[in-house]
């Protein structure tokens, strides 16, 4: 069975998309996967047999030189891929630091006027002949345009996968431009979803809300792992100084939580060191923010590879998951379930979750009693005090986390569900 997947980023095991989709498809028999991506970069997954790449740089070049291809099939050993990615690093770094709305509009305009619907793309699709489409549903006009084109051109069954709230109006912003964009782009999201034969969602909250809105049936699909009893990692007996690890993006709300954690840790450690926190992030921070998150007990690090962060997590005592408390941030993630959570459950370590219980991920830890939870900033320090005064809690939460993973995220059950759905749709 041939599966075609469209993605924003290249399929790399070091980015969230590639890591998650490799996790979903690995180990499923009798499938072949091809990927069309829309950003520069080198794919690094052995799972994908063929890659096609369209980039904004190629679209711009094509505007001035029609003979320049906007998309091309690439090989993983192609040196030009690395060159293209290197040339794009400064632009992406600027974009991360300056998330101006006009920059997103410029990108949308490039894709709107650019000739992404090329003969090269059509030839790639026709030559591959997919049996089924497996498509992430993004909050993006051009990605939904490409998705709808591929669906119409191939006329094969399509499974959609949506992992953020890209449709409802349960959001907060005082900007009229935000709402104009939301109202415009959600129409594209609905068109894409309604072309699906099946829609995978990320959480119970999202399933409940989207089943009331969209036509295709919804099923919950998360990252999975092998939770067999013989694979359960040994619990790491806590050291005198408990090590907390956070790895991920730092939004303004998450920064507030991390700064409150840093403040609480320094206060607790004033009577003898009890905690150390290490933060690994790609997010560009201001000097003032770096200073707040760089203390005697809190250390800020550049990002490391997925394999490296997994080793760091195994050597920790507490893994941190947090979502911002502001109305804007908690609404933005109220349906979401971080891909890192299954990694946390599999590690057999205590999890500390901080955020409003309106968020699906925080509610998950409460409902399954599989982590220490602080649902307000004032609860953070007491929660830390409770953990450092009773180390037995660390093992209790770790055991509960493993059992929750075993019950809800077993690779046997999830991969069988995906395989059965693929087979059913292609009969």
Percent range of helical residues: 40-55%
**Radius of gyration over alpha carbons?**
22 Å
Strand content: 15-25%
Low-confidence blocks of residues: 82-91
Briefly note the CATH topology name of the largest domain. Rossmann fold
Tally of DSSP helical segments: 17
Strand arrangement, largest sheet?
4-3-2-1-5-6-7-8
The count of domains is 2
What's the count of strands? 14
CATH superfamily of the largest domain: Glycogen Phosphorylase B
Biggest pleated-sheet summary:
8 strands, mixed
CATH class designation of the largest domain: Alpha Beta
Task: Briefly note the structural class of the backbone.
Answer: alpha/beta
Distance between the termini: 11 Å
Tell me, what's the shape? globular
CATH architecture of the largest domain: 3-Layer(aba) Sandwich
Task: Describe the protein in words.
The chain has helices at residues 16-25, 56-64, 79-97, 101-113, 119-128, 141-154, 176-194, 204-210, 252-269, 287-292, 306-314, 327-332, 340-347, 360-368, 380-389, 392-408, 411-425; strands spanning 2-7, 32-37, 48-54, 71-74, 132-136, 158-162, 198-201, 218-220, 242-247, 275-280, 298-301, 318-322, 350-354, 372-374. It has 427 residues and is α/β, with parallel strands linked by helices. Helix 6 (141-154) links the parallel strand 5 and strand 6 (158-162). Helix 9 (252-269) packs across helix 15 (380-389).
């Amino acid at each position: 069975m041939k599966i075609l997947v469209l993605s924003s980023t290249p399929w790399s095991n070091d980015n969230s998309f590639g890591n998650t989709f490799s996790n979903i498809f690995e180990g499923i028999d009798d499938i072949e996967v091809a990927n069309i991506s829309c950003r520069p970069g080198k794919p690094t997954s052995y799972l994908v047999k063929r890659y096609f790449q369209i980039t904004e740089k190629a679209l711009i070049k094509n505007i001035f030189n029609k003979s320049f291809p906007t998309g091309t099939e690439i090989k993983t050993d192609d040196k030009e891929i690395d060159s293209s990615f290197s040339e794009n690093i400064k632009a992406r770094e600027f974009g991360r630091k300056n998330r101006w709305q006009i920059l997103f509009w410029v990108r949308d305009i490039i894709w709107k006027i650019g000739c992404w619907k090329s003969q090269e793309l059509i030839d790639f699709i026709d030559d591959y002949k997919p049996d089924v489409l497996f498509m992430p549903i993004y909050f993006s006009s051009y990605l939904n345009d490409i998705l709808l084109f591929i669906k119409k051109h191939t006329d094969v069954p399509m499974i959609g996968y949506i992992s953020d709230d890209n449709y409802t109006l349960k959001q907060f912003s005082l900007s009229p431009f935000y709402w104009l964009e939301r109202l415009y782009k959600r129409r594209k999201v609905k068109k894409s979803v309604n072309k699906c034969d099946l829609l995978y969602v990320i959480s119970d909250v999202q399933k409940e809300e989207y089943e009331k809105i969209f036509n295709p049936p919804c099923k919950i699909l998360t990252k999975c792992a092998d939770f067999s009893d013989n694979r359960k990692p040994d619990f790491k007996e806590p050291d005198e100084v408990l090590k907390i690890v956070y790895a991920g993006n730092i939004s303004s709300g998450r920064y507030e939580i991390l700064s409150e954690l840093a403040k609480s840790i320094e206060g607790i450690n004033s009577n003898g060191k009890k905690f150390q926190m290490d933060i690994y992030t790609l997010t560009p921070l201001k000097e003032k923010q770096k200073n707040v998150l760089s203390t005697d007990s809190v250390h800020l690090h550049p990002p490391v590879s997925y394999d490296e962060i997994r080793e760091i997590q195994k050597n920790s005592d507490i893994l941190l998951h947090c979502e911002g408390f502001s109305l804007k941030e908690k609404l933005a993630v109220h349906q979401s379930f971080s891909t890192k959570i299954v990694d946390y459950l599999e590690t057999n370590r205590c999890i500390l979750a901080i955020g409003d219980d309106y968020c699906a991920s925080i509610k998950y830890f409460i409902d399954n009693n599989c982590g220490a939870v602080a649902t307000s900033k004032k609860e953070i320090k007491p929660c830390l005090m409770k953990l450092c005064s009773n180390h037995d809690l660390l093992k209790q939460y770790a055991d509960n986390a493993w059992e929750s993973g075993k019950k809800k995220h077993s690779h046997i059950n999830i991969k069988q569900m995906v395989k059965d759905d693929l087979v059913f749709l292609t009969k």
